[in-house]
Amino acid sequence: MKAFSETVRLHPDRPAVTRHDRTVTYTELDAWVRATARRLGPDPGVVGVLTSRSPDTVAALLGVLAAGGVYCPIDPAYPWPRREAMIAASGCRAVIGEPGSAVPPGVRLTRLPGPADPPAAGFTAVAADDPAYILFTSGSTGEPKPVVTPRGAISVVTAGLRELFGITPDDRVLQFASLNWDTCLEEILPALTSGATLVFHDHAYSGSLRRMLRMIDAERITVLDLPTAFWHELVHHLTAERAALPPSVRLVVVGGEAVNPVRLADWRALGLGAVRLLNTYGCTETTLITHAVDLHGPHTPESGPAGPLEGGPDDRVPIGRPLPHVVERITEDGELLVGGPALALGYRDRPEATAERFTELDAAPEDGGPGDGPRRWFRTGDRVSRRPDGALLHEGRLDHQLKVRGVRVDPGEVEAQIAGHPRVGAVAVVGVPVAGHTTLAAYVVPRSPAMTASLAGEVLAYLREHVPAHLVPHRITVVPELVHTASGKVDRAGSHRRYQSAAV
Amino acid sequence: MNVDAVSAVFREVLEISEVNADSDFFVMGGDSLLATRVLSAVARATGVELEFDDLLDAPTPNALSKKIAEAA
Known about the structure:
- By secondary structure, chain A is α/β, with parallel strands linked by helices.
- Chain A has 13 helices and 26 strands.
- The longest helix of chain A has 15 residues, at 26-40.
- Chain B has a single domain, classed as ACP-like (Non-ribosomal Peptide Synthetase Peptidyl Carrier Protein, Chain A, Orthogonal Bundle).
């Protein structure tokens, strides 16, 4: 919050956040943040925020932090049982949302104040290891895991990303990422600590790329931070429709899953040499971005036909090199471990899950030398290899986790949810490629053979009432039994192979 | 855009052959990302710029063809 206050002092009259015809200057946003902090009172604990694609959510986020609280975004479109579970698991004592929004008993619902409401005099003092926000990642048990990120982590990463992105007060950064995961903070925090403008616009989320490109042009957007899967579609559109990327765009940041080398080659053929294309990697538990690499544009010495990143169909695109605040280590199994000041504190109230993924190891000579003492590491679960130039290549997962539209999904979580349906006996969930995208398919065994009819539809309706849309399989097939491995465990891939042709 | 033309778009986008007039785009594996390709193809053929919510609302070639006709 210190960096935000300094920005307000340097750029009081510049636009901080806009949506359509509405503009909020830095001075106005600061007053709004203080009004929110006053409404919450000092040290309000964990505050849930029912998110909306508008400057309101930015005021709520910064207001919670200014009050000394812990921000926890909650998507109002999620089914109620999920919202209730998130509020309970994060320990929310207050929720900011529209009057009448549902909250569990004992939780205070607070309306966001207006920018002109009475402000708090100052921001509540915090320490670097005080928590800043709680975000959820998919867990194998059916319950999402609340990741608690400390203040110090967001300070160091925000400063690092300002540097990496080269954000200046002239930048106009599109707010595109879902407000329910951490990527949106890559857009919000570097922009609002640089004097740049964060732009919300409904045409960014409509699904029409034509409208989105016209809007980017009209709004003079300079920075786009896109899920890789969406960027793949943008490249497809620009290529197939012979459409142009508006000339205002100077930086495109992608991340979330592997960059398709064919799409990268297509991008390089578009004549966008002045646009910097940056691939990034990071986990919620290691705070936003830990690794990055330039793939194209003015900062790419390797670009050009002779470079090592040619983008042929057999090339793999690297996930990057560690940012200055990151220490990394690769285990004998090839797992990437990440250390440094950006690690999360752990999973809230889940000491076993925390101990499993956050581990203390003695420092190796290459990461600080002997005498540095033990260091805390996050086990990413990602297998990587190092190219001669130091950039990492992603080799796969050590567990069964999938990326569905850029979001981490543990099939075990979806299985546990489906198993909660009273008529389901057994279930296997697999990731299935459809036109290059990973989608979820479920194979369900009824508890009793008499229950086969209509079970698929019932399970689908049950899931829609209990989990967010990205966890709902597109196809649910009722089968007589699952395939098991020699050791008796459910063989997800084997079950899919046996039944996929029945599943059309 | 008639039903056959929309079915052809579904086939191309989903990379599958078995699409009929009542096939549901999302049940066949379509998602919000692949939907952008359907919307781009519709816009190219007809000039009608539909949104993701329109496809959610009309996810079959039959229904989408009607929606395009209404919007044209």
